[in-house]
């Protein structure tokens, strides 16, 4: 019996004193060297901070109208002044303050809608992938039906019927944004279900519920986080599109999409009314996508092309 | 002049922690028509050597060498383009381990075989097709002309490997490198492919480098054997001489770690420890950390080559007599199988039918994975279930474990029917150990969590769980410092110990081991087989062991059941089945198993 005992050489004994890094720690170590992830995460964190501290950062009340100061240009254009750094809109509200408060809407809707999509998509995907059979058929049918419908059109119709409000917009964009979650988690679950550690768990008497929570979901988490980040970007764009078309966030709440819509009439004479919210939208979405790309590289370096 | 001469080949691979020295200062040469076997465990650098010769190394790998000559021509100076045109395939051919993935699934066999020779302008289209058909015929593919129009998925694994061999021969290479050509194949097919390679070498006079982890396979078909470990060649000599008188302690240990098919059952002499990655050019003996005979100076300086008779050399400082002497082998305790013992597993007339439908409206096909098999395993007994892939042995195991439902028949564990038995009760009676230690552990859980999980499912408290997990780690001889490691950091053998600890933590009555060692290296296999034998003796376990390896059967089992295509073809006491098989299939399995017996050693010696 003694010869099977591990005769560990002294060199490794000392090296193993400090614990080897966990998969999570390794991913964090990789995160510190991934430029795209750093930039993306930096943008997102900064804009989230802006959203949280909007009332302290905004120089003016975003709802305060001042008819004498309508359509002032930004400070670098002739006629602009330092009180209204980025000028004012059609009813004389400070554009900078409205942009800052608009961050709140975009980020709330981005995170909220992606969360709704995550819950629906992951639930359906894991159930379909794990149980298969008629559950899989039913869930896949819903997925196919969803993919066949034109998303934005459906969202417009739904908001039109239910009536626009922040929560309705979050709910509807989320309900339309679960397909990617489901496609990925379903096939990943099917794969994991066939692995021996799931068989071992079943042989130890684990219930499907225990297997899903303990064996399957932890192994899906990195994939889910990556999709979530991408979906945040998609949801933000969807909200802007809905607001631009007048069926999203309603005035006077400051939303970037709505601001672009309000400024579009004067686009050729006062381009900043459209360009400024457009730039912010671009930065936020590219931040989310960079971070999603980075997370995919970090969590599964073997999938990197 | 030697056909190929390799002088101090070093291959470095970039890894997150720096450079991994996969191959270090490896030198060998090979004459025309000669066959060299390179033997080593996984991670020894044998495949990297082959890839370096073929310039197929992964991106970022660095190669340095003092000379790489093919027929006197220096290959190191040759640009990649010229190499691809004049050497790759045409002068050095290669066949790979995995026949399932080395053929392109969307092209026909004929097209893949003729492509290279036509593109290189060596043969015209029709001449190439004619030669391809001839070669397919030579490698034993029936009806070659028709096969040329088929796709890889229409061929079995063995046939694909034959096609790969024929494809390599299309360009008539001077040297054929075969990297584990039979590892992915069944034993009987493996023997046929090795015979084919040996025959082709005699006919064409090409040289061959055969890379394998299996000393027996290599020794049977090559003239010389080189033993690799940790990126270095440790020993090289004539095949018979290396097997009969290993000059390096590693070779000796490797030979003693291989279970035999006959003779008295003995504990295997496992090599302790694990293969370590070489992150710097070695400055000591690479094997010293695991060597039972290591001296202080082994740790401080690289031992020089010591050449003995007949060009047989080894990199070891010990004098001839002191090397390779084994500690006295200990006989295994005689298994106390009792024919009248309580039956622990009773499987009665088990049948499992899978229905396969091709397409939505296609015809239904029926596959009988297990066909009317009955099996009884008594308390304390070890029964081996033997068969090749597709024999239904794993399906039967899953039915006994309650993971798959049988189409007909029933299973009783300790007299109770498993249909209708609560999962947790079944879990305390029977536990599995799986083949692939890389998929049997959840990568996101620590060793402690994995081992204690079955206790958690039974509602045992956190403190008790941790204590029991530590106890189990001692039982399976795992260092307790690995308690909070993730599977990522464990070697294959360590992972398999974790899997065994998890299976044993609830003290089950029965273990069902599905090929528990076929994914492991020989030296590690010996550790695990010894551990299983110890556990059987210590806990009075009843074991059903599923394997294709007759040596594992001989090592562990008292009774053998042979399955062929879902049916039982033979059953009986191990000694009787191995010694005097009655069924022709059992005999074929036994004949195909590579072994070192006197006759083969004589053949290799001539």
Account of the 3D structure:
The complex is a heterodimer of chains A (305) and B (606). Chain A is mainly alpha-helical. In chain A, 69% of the residues lie in helices and 0% in strands. Among the domains of chain B are: 4-82 and 212-322, Rossmann fold (3-Layer(aba) Sandwich); 343-437 and 509-600, P-loop containing nucleotide triphosphate hydrolases (Rossmann fold, 3-Layer(aba) Sandwich). Chain B has 20 helices and 23 strands. Chain B has an eight-stranded mixed β-sheet with strand order 7-8-9-3-10-11-13-12, sandwiched between helices. In chain B, strand 5 (67-70) and strand 6 (73-74) form a beta hairpin. Chain B is globular. Chain A binds chain B through residues 1, 3-9, 11-12, 16, 19-20, 22-23, 195-197, 199-207, 210, 214-215, 218-219, 221, and chain B through 267, 269-270, 272-273, 276, 289-290, 327, 398, 401-403, 422-427, 430-432, 434-436, 439-446, 450, 453-454, 457-458, 477-479, 481, 484-486, 488-489, 499, 502-503, 506, 527, 530-531, 534.
Short recap of the structure:
The complex is a heterodimer of chains A (305) and B (606). Chain A is mainly α and 305 residues long.
> What's the overall geometry of chain A?
elongated
The named CATH superfamily of chain A? MetI-like
CATH superfamily of the domain at 4-82 and 212-322 in chain B: P-loop containing nucleotide triphosphate hydrolases
Oligomer, anyone? heterodimer
- SS field, number of helical segments of chain A: 13
Q: Walk across the major sheet of chain B and give the strand order.
A: 7-8-9-3-10-11-13-12
Helix content of chain B: 25-40%
> Strand count, sense and closure of the main sheet of chain A?
none
Question: Element order, helices and strands of chain A?
Answer: HHHHHHHHHHHHH
Give the N-to-C terminal Cα separation of chain A: 48 Å
On the 0-100 scale, what is the average pLDDT of chain A?
Answer: 85
Strand percent estimate of chain B: 15-25%
Proportion of residues in β-strands of chain A: under 5%
CATH structural architecture of chain A: Orthogonal Bundle
CATH architecture of the domain at 4-82 and 212-322 in chain B: 3-Layer(aba) Sandwich
Q: Based on helices, strands and strand pairing, what is the structural class of chain A? A: mainly alpha
């Amino acid at each position: 019996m003694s010869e099977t005992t591990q005769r560990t050489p002294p060199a490794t004994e000392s090296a193993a004193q400090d614990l080897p890094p966990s998969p999570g720690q390794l991913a964090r170590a990789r995160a510190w060297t991934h430029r795209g992830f750093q930039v993306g995460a930096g943008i997102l964190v900064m804009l989230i901070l802006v959203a949280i501290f909007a009332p302290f950062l905004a120089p003016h009340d975003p709802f305060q109208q001042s008819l004498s100061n309508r359509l002032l240009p930004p400070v670098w254009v002739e006629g602009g002044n330092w009180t209204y750094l980025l000028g004012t809109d059609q009813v004389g509200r400070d554009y900078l303050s409205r942009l800052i408060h608009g961050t709140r809407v975009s980020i709330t809707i981005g995170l909220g809608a992606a969360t709704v999509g995550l819950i629906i998509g992951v639930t359906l995907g894991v159930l379909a992938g794990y149980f298969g059979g008629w559950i899989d058929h039913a869930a896949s049918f819903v997925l196919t039906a969803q993919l066949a419908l034109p998303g934005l059109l459906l969202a417009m119709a739904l908001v039109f019927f239910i009536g626009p409000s922040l929560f309705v917009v979050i709910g509807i964009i989320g309900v339309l944004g679960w397909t990617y979650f489901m496609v990925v988690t379903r096939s990943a679950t099917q794969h994991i279900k066939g692995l021996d550690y799931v068989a071992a768990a079943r042989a130890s008497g684990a219930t499907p519920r225990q297997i899903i929570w303990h064996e399957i979901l932890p192994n899906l988490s990195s994939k889910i986080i990556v999709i979530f980040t991408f979906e945040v970007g998609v949801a933000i764009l969807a909200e802007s599109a809905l607001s631009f078309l007048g069926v999203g966030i309603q005035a006077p709440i400051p939303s970037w999409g709505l601001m672009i819509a309000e400024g579009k009439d004067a686009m050729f004479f006062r381009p900043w009314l459209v360009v400024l919210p457009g730039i912010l939208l671009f930065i936020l979405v590219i931040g989310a996508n960079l971070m999603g790309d980075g997370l995919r590289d970090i969590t599964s370096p073997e999938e990197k092309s | 002049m030697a056909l190929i001469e390799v002088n101090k080949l070093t291959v470095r691979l970039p890894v997150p922690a720096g450079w991994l020295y996969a191959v270090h200062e490896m030198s060998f040469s090979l004459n025309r028509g000669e066959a060299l076997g390179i033997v080593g465990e996984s991670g020894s650098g044998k495949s990297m050597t082959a890839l370096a010769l073929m310039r197929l190394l992964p991106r970022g790998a660095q190669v340095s060498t003092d000379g790489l000559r093919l027929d006197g021509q220096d290959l190191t100076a040759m640009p990649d383009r010229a190499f691809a045109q004049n050497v790759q395939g045409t002068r050095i051919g290669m066949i790979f381990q995995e026949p399932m993935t080395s053929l392109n699934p969307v092209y026909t066999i004929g097209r893949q075989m003729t492509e290279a020779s036509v593109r290189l302008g060596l043969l015209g289209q029709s001449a190439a097709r004619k030669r391809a058909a001839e070669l397919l015929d030579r490698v034993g593919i029936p009806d070659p002309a028709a096969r040329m129009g088929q796709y890889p998925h229409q061929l079995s694994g063995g046939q694909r490997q034959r096609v790969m061999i024929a494809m390599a021969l299309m360009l008539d290479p001077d040297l054929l490198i075969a990297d584990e050509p039979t590892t992915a194949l069944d034993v009987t097919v493996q023997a046929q492919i090795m015979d084919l390679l040996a025959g082709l070498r005699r006919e064409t006079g090409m040289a061959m480098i055969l890379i394998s982890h299996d000393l027996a396979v290599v020794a049977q078909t090559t003239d010389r054997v080189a033993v690799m470990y940790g990126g270095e060649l440790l020993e090289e000599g004539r095949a018979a001489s290396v097997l009969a008188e290993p000059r390096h302690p590693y070779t000796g240990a490797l030979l003693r770690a291989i279970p035999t098919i006959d003779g008295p059952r003995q504990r295997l002499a496992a090599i302790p420890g694990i293969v370590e990655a070489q992150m710097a050019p070695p400055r000591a003996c690479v094997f010293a950390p695991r060597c039972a005979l290591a001296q202080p100076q082994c740790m401080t300086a690289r031992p020089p080559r010591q050449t003995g008779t007949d060009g047989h050399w080894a990199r070891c400082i010990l004098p001839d007599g002191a090397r390779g002497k084994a500690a006295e082998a200990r006989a295994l305790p005689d298994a106390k199988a009792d024919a009248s013992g309580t039956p622990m597993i009773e499987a009665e007339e088990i049948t499992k039918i899978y229905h396969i439908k091709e397409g939505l409206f296609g015809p239904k096909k029926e596959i009988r994975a297990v066909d009317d098999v009955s099996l009884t395993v008594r308390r304390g007994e070890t029964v081996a279930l033997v068969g090749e892939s597709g024999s239904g042995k794993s399906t039967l195991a899953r039915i006994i474990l309650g993971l798959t439902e049988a189409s007909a028949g029933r299973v009783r564990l300790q007299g109770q029917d498993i249909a209708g038995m609560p999962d947790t009760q079944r879990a305390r009676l029977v536990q599995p150990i799986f083949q692939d230690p890389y998929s049997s552990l959840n990568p996101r859980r620590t060793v402690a969590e994995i081992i204690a999980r079955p206790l958690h499912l039974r509602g045992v408290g956190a403190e008790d769980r941790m204590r029991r997990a530590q106890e189990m780690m001692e039982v399976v001889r795992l260092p307790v410092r690995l308690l909070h490691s993730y599977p990522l950091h464990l070697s294959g053998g360590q992972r398999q110990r974790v899997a065994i600890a998890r299976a044993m933590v609830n003290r089950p009555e029965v273990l069902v081991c599905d090929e528990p060692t076929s994914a492991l290296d020989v030296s590690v296999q010996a550790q695990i087989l010894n551990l299983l034998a110890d556990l059987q003796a210590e806990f009075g376990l009843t074991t059903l062991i599923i394997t294709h390896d007759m040596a594992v059967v001989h090592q562990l089992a008292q009774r053998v059941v042979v399955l062929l295509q879902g049916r039982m073809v033979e059953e009986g006491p191990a000694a009787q089945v191995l010694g005097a098989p009655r069924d022709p299939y059992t005999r074929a399995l036994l004949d195909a198993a590579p072994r070192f017996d006197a006759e083969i050693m004589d053949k290799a010696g001539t």
